[in-house]
Amino acid sequence: MPKILIIYPHWMPSNLVGAQRGRLLANSLPELGWETHVLAVHPNYYEEPSVPELTQLVKPQVKVHFVDAKPITKKNRLIGDLALRAFSNLKHKAIDIIRQERIDFFWLPIPSYYNALLGNPIYKATKIPFGIDYIDPWVDGFPGQEKTFSKAWVANKIAKILEPIALKNASLISGVAYEYYAPVLKRNFTKKSIEHCAMQYGFDPFDYTIDIGRGNELWPPNKEAFIYAGAFLPKAHLFIKALFQSVSQLKKENKIPENLHLYFIGTGQYRERSIEQYAIDFGIKDMVTEKRDRISYLQVINLLKKAKGILVIGSTEKHYTASKVFQSLLSGTPIFSIFHQQSDATAILNQIGANNYLVEYNPADDSEKLMLNVKYKFEDIISSQKEWNPNLSLLDQYSAKASAQKLIQSIEKVI
Fold it and tell me: 117, 7 in Cβ contact below 8 A?
């Protein structure tokens, strides 16, 4: 049986999105005939709060190894990145695992971007091929990098130096979407080719079998809740403005139920104009609640199941791939969504018949036309005028197992 080692600093019970990327694939790989090992830093060294219930998401076939890291103190606050604090321990432990377990391939998701720098020293010590997975772009992937001498600007300058070093001996580039790593190929592999593949996060039906043992504490029983769960995207502001303007007009027309409320959960600590501020601008502050702190992945699933409706607000970028689409669909709750008309999410929702309340964004349309499209679709969903019965069996091709299959096909070409 071939063996793979996934090296990523965060693991369950971490609630970070990157940890879920590795976890979804790790759970699926044993079903495809690959013995799967994971190397991470022990949760005692995470800065972010851990969520113990998330350990239930890891299937017993996955073999997990932990290492220690340098703790953060007032003296060494300069180095906060977990991959840096555990770099030496991760490197030496990975080499030991590869030799003892006879690993065939190791895989490094980023960010943390410094995780990619583990590839070369481990490869030099073991000669085992490795791949780097772009969950997010590295070079030119820092919001605010245009401002000279800002923290993001400095980080991007460092990225341009470190990326070619990290990729020097890589055998595979993968990513959530081809557009995320296409510039990587152009920057680093013009004179030689490299195996590459794109695969979405996907979903695992196993996640929806887990009972966290508590109900919904977010809204009172008398509320009809529409919930948005996840980060507020830098290029989603246009859509939020269109949605709130639509809701404001519907409210003036007495078409909004008095008990309807919009909840935006885990939107993150972004710097741009906030969802709450937009709600004030459009006079609907009384029916909008924003909670920026992240909540447990399993709690999100629980809330989606209990909501009246789900808001999935995408990006004006056509290549944006929304992994949250799958967890929303599997909840069984009707979805109101806005995506670029050429995005993968739009294609998926149309394919499975989950487009009853889908707004397809056309960049050629003006803001007034976008707002009217949003208004009509939102009025439909709050009045339940259309049947919600998507064909979820068609989602199998987008599952985490299907993504793992794509990864394995590329790895097998390498080894």
Answer: no
